[in-house]
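Appendix B, example 12.
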Amino acid sequence: MERKDFRRLFIIAAFLLCLFCFLVFQFYKLQIKEGAKWEGLAKNQHQFAVVEPYKRGRFIANGMLKEGHIERELPLVFDVKKYHLFIDPISIPEGAREEIIEKIKDHLPLSWEEKNGLRDHFEKKSRSRRLKMWVDEKDRETLLTWWYAFARWKKIPRNALYFEEDYKRAYPYGKLLGPVLHTVRDERDPLEKKALPTGGLELAFNEVLQGKAGKRLLLRSPGKAMEGGLLLNLPNDGADIYLTINATIQAIAEEEIERAVKSAGAKSGWAVMMNPNTGEIYALAQYPFFDPSEYRTYYNDPEQMLATKVRAITDCFEPGSTMKPISMAIALMANEELKRRGKEPLFDPRDMLPVSDGHFPGRKQPIRDVSHHKYLNMYLAIQRSSNIYVAKLIQRVVGSLGDEWYRKQLSEVFGFGVPTGIELPSESHGLLPAPLKTYGDGRLQWSTPTPYSLSFGYNLLTNSMQLLRAYAILINGGYLVKPTLVKKIVKEGEVIYDASGKAFQQVFDPSISREIIYALKSTTKPGGGGMRADIPGYTEGGKPGTTE
C-alpha cells in the first residue's frame, strides 16, 4: 500500500472514530446525563396527570335534642359528583369544529357567555381547554354517546373531547342555615387546586373539611380512551362536622323571623336559640336569607351582600333594658363580695327603695322611667323596667367596690367587650368603656355618670351572641358557658374532636340565678312589658328591651 493511500485510510478511520466517539457522547448525554429531561418531555407529549378529586367533609345536623332520642344523620351539606368538559383543540380538525360546537350547545345548559366563547377555545393552540364546569352525569352520558360515534366517523382521536371528575357542594335544604354554613367558590386555588371558602363554617373549618387530592395518569393516544388511566395516588376525603343545629328548629326559626321582619316592616332581623347549660346553639336564623348555591348573586350586589354575614355576631348595638337583669345580678354579687369582706350587703332584693328622684352625680339631665313610681323592689323593678332603680343599685356597687370591680364583672363574668369564641369568623368585640382610656376624639371613655348609663344598657355595644351568653350565665347557676355550633368532628370513622363532657367555671352562687329567674318570670305577667310572650301551658321569662 502506498504511503498516500495509507494516509487517506488513516484520515477516514480517524474521522469515523471521531464520529463514533461523538455519537457515543451524544448517546451518553441523551440517555444518561439528560435522560430524565427527555423522558419527561416524551411523557408530557403522550400522557398527562389529572387530579383525582376528594370529597370535602359534610356538615351534619343535630338529630337528637334529648338523651334517649334516636340520633339520625341529617346532612345539610355534602359533595356530589360532577364533571368538567375539556377539549384537545390540536387533535380536532377545523372541518369538524362547527358541528361539535353546535352539539355541545344542544346537549349542555350553557350561559350566553359560555356559548359565545366556545369557538375561541377551539382556535387555541393548546392540548387542554375547559369548556364547561359542573356538568351532570346525565348530560355527560348524552354528550359522550354522540361524541364517540362522531369521533369514529370523522376519524378524530376519541380523547380529543373528555371529562374530568370533580365534586361540588350540594344543599338539600336550600337556604337553610346559609350564612352560617356558607360555601366554596367554583374556582379552586390555581396553584394547589384547593377549595376557596366564601366564609362561615366552611372557612372556619377549612383545614379539617379539606381532604387530599389523588392523581391519575391519562394517555393522549388516539386509541386510548380518557376514562381509564393509571391511578397513582388515592384521594383522601375530608372530615365530617356534626353540628349542634337542629334542622327542624332552624327551619321554624327561619320561618318565624321572616314573618316577624315582614310584619314589622323592618329591613332585617335574626334569632338565636341556645341551651344555657351547654352553650349548644340549636338555631341561628336571620332574614333576608342567604342561599349558598347562588353566592355569586349576593356578592355582586352590595345590598344582598349583607345577608352573607352572620348578623348575630357581626352587628353591635346598645342592649338597652335587657342589661338590667345583668346589673341586678352584679349587685347581688356585690352583696356576696361585701359579706366575704365582713361588711354589710348593699341591699335586699325584697326591700322597697325610693325611685321617684332620677338625679345622679355628674349628669346634667335626670334619669327617667317610662312610668312614675315611688318605691320598687328588685322584682318589681325588672317587671316595670325601672331605669332609676337599677342605676341606684349600681351607684351603691361603685361606691362600695369601685369602678374597676364593676367593670371586671361586666367583662370577665358576663363577657362584654370580649368575643364569645364561637366557631365563626368575623365576630365583633363590641365595646365596653374603660376607666382612664379615651376615645379617638380625646374624650374619656369612663366618667362619673358612666356606670349609671351602663346599668340600663347605654354607653356600651354588644352583639347578640355576647348578650345571649350573658343571659345563659344568668340563669344556668353562674357557669361560664361558651356558645358552640360543633358537637364533634369525625375523620374516616374516628372521632378527632368531641365537645361533650366539658366542665365550665362557676363564677357566682346559684342562689343569684334563682333570684334573677324569679324576677324574669314576672315580665310576662300582668304589669310586665313582655305579656305577649306569655304562652298558656308554659313557664317563660325574659326581659324586653328597646334602644335608640
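The radius of gyration is 35 Å. The chain has a mean pLDDT of 90.
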